[in-house]
Amino acid sequence: MIFKRVGDGRPYPDHGLDSRGWADLPPRQVRLDELVTTKDTLRLDTLLDEDSTFYGDLFAHVVQWKGDLYLEDGLHRALRAALQQRSVLHARVHQAGDQ
How many CB atoms sit inside 10 A of residue 52's CB? Predict the structure, then answer.
């Protein structure tokens, strides 16, 4: 299994971070098998597009909440990493309340 669990939606409360807030968080390595996805579908054309991350953040966005790491943004990056047989992903991690 690539991820800890495949989820559908964000179980954590709204964190209110915008792109500037995410950019203020330093990236760190996160193991793919520790991530819970917040999306259960992906677009194959986006996954295979080499420029799909050109306009977004270079790093995935992860929310740590109640002991789990939720992959909020970056599913395509995470899957590309797995296809390249990498076990980690560089991500910005926000620690939400109710740890």
Answer: 15
